[in-house]
Design goal:
This protein is an alpha/beta fold and 330 residues long. It is 48% helix and 12% strand. Bound molecules: coproporphyrinogen III (CP3).
């Protein structure tokens, strides 16, 4: 590729009028059962923005919902769990995932996309900590009190839970790669709520296992979280090929923390895009300058596209990244 590649987390979704037009009532988990529809939603931002990658339209709780844990995604809220995970006995509700039987529509969507796309398709899974936080809290949380209490008061159950979730993630990712996904991203969106010592003891081993087990798949493995400035070295240590960085840490600083190995992905503040094109262009150039000189940068936002974003801004942003990085600057 002659330029720095660019794609956006949550590029498919409510900021696109064509998404709102297609989106049926009810849970995203219901929409996913219709491969033609899920594939079309995945393609919409690729057509409109000219991004260099597609990300599968799915959700991090789809696999745990498919093994029958009793999770749904409420529009405007997020994942909601009927009977949250509270003690050892709940492990029995998390059997192994058999992708071909439990959610065959995901691989079917990937196969359709692999046939239609001329850019790579990124598959994904939720990291064990972030998925566990939904299962334990029962809904989106600000302070993760129950999650932290479980890990600190019953570490054996906690580690067993993360181990189950790691196995489910690996099964899901392998099925996506087998069907044609050419990279995978592991979303540990909420890991930034943890201090580094707690992250290393209670979370990193399960995430590392996913990355290790996916190493043989031959596809690049991206690890992303929000507010993870103090965890970036650990994200690299976990074995990621690409470390996602949110907007709080300049990429040159992130590079020092991550070391020379992994590529960096990020990290324009998604709120800047809502402020309009002027601020977006200015901040995007700053991001590119901070990435400059270091090898391996995938341009992205520091977190997902916000629903209030004007799609025209994201379209121009792809052009800017391509133009600025095609002039032999890198
Ligand atoms: O374009 C893409 O990035 C691909 C699709 C994607 C979705 N969810 C679609 C979705 C991806 C990669 C996810 C992962 C996901 N789901 C994460 C990790 C990424 C992140 O944002 O940090 C998390 C934390 C979830 C859990 C979740 N699902 C939340 C918090 C929400 C938002 C609830 C809301 O309505 O505000 C969802 C629902 C969801 N997942 C939507 C989309 C496009 C929006 C609502 C819908 O149309 O139903």
């Amino acid at each position: 590729m002659p330029w720095t590649p660019v794609w956006y987390m949550r590029q498919a979704g409510r900021s696109l009028p064509e998404y709102r037009a297609l989106r049926r009532e009810g849970s995203i988990l219901e929409v996913l059962r219709h491969p033609e529809l899920a594939a079309e939603i995945t393609l919409q931002p690729v057509r409109r923005y000219g991004v260099d990658a597609a990300i599968l339209y799915s959700d991090i709780v789809a696999p745990v919902a498919a093994v029958g844990f009793g999770v749904d995604v409420t529009p405007g809220v997020g994942p909601v769990v009927e009977r949250p995970f509270s003690s050892r006995g709940d492990l029995a509700r998390l059997r192994d995932l058999e992708p071909d039987l439990d959610l065959p529509w995901v691989a079917e969507t990937v196969r359709i996309l692999a046939g239609e796309l001329d850019v790579p398709l990124i598959g994904f899974a939720g990291a064990p900590f972030t998925v566990a936080s939904y299962l334990v809290e029962g809904r989106p949380s600000r302070d993760y009190l129950r999650t932290k209490a479980l890990m600190l008061t019953d570490p054996a159950t906690w580690h067993a839970l993360l181990d189950r979730l790691a196995s489910i993630a690996v099964a899901s990712l392998r099925a996506q790669v087998a069907a044609g996904a050419s990279a995978v991203q592991i979303f540990d969106s909420w890991a930034g709520t943890l201090d580094p010592d707690t992250y290393r003891r209670f979370v990193l081993p399960a995430t590392r296992r996913i990355l290790t087990e996916m190493a043989g798949s031959g596809v690049p493995r991206i690890l992303f979280g929000v507010g993870t400035g103090e965890l970036l070295a650990d994200f690299a240590d976990a074995g990621a090929d690409v470390v996602g960085v949110d907007w709080r840490v300049p990429l040159d600083v992130a590079r020092r923390r991550v070391g020379p190995g992994p590529a960096l992905q990020g990290n324009l503040d998604p709120a800047v895009c809502v402020a309009g094109w002027g601020p977006t262009a200015e901040r995007a150039r700053a991001v590119l300058a901070q990435a400059g000189g270091t090898s391996g940068h995938v341009f992205n936002l520091g977190h997902g596209v916000l629903p209030e974003t004007d799609p025209a801004v994201l379209e121009r942003l792809v052009e800017l990244v391509h133009e600025e990085t095609s002039r032999g600057r890198r």
